[in-house]
Amino acid sequence: MSYKQSWKELNDMFAVLSTAEKKGERIGIEKGERIGIEKGEKIGIEKIVINAIKKGFDNATIQELTGLDIASIEKIRKKIVDKS
Fold first, then answer.
1. How many domains is the chain partitioned into structurally?
2. In which element (H, E) is residue 12 found?
3. Are 80 and 50 in contact (CB under 8 A)?
4. C-alpha distances in angstroms, 15 versus 1, 7, 8, 28?
């Protein structure tokens, strides 16, 4: 009886670990996708700001178009000027 009980406990632990591993993998994938989307959106907005600056748009207009705060726009504007 002891052998059967040990075997059952081992199988139960394996099932729990397997379930936890699958759940952890799913959570990791979801978090990675969320981070990737957020990073992609940030890059896209920055490209829009850069193009708007190059076209001569003022900070208020860029803020209205992108939703970024003026400090962030100025930071991007400074990067462009420093590269020139």
1. 1
2. helix 2-54
3. yes
4. 21, 12, 11, 20
Q: For residues 65 and 61, give the distance between their C-alpha atoms in angstroms, rounded to a whole number.
A: 6
SS3 letters across 48-81: HHHHHHHCCCCHHHHHHHHCCCHHHHHHHHHHHH
Q: Which helix (H) or strand (E) holds 25?
A: helix 2-54
- pLDDT value of residue 1: 64
- Amino acid letter for position 57: F
**Host domain of residue 48:** 2-83
> Token digits for 67?
């939703």
Reading the chain (84 residues) residue by residue, the pLDDT tens digits are 688 888 889 898 999 999 999 999 999 999 999 999 999 999 999 999 999 999 999 999 999 999 999 999 999 999 988 876
Note if the pTM is more than 0.90.
no
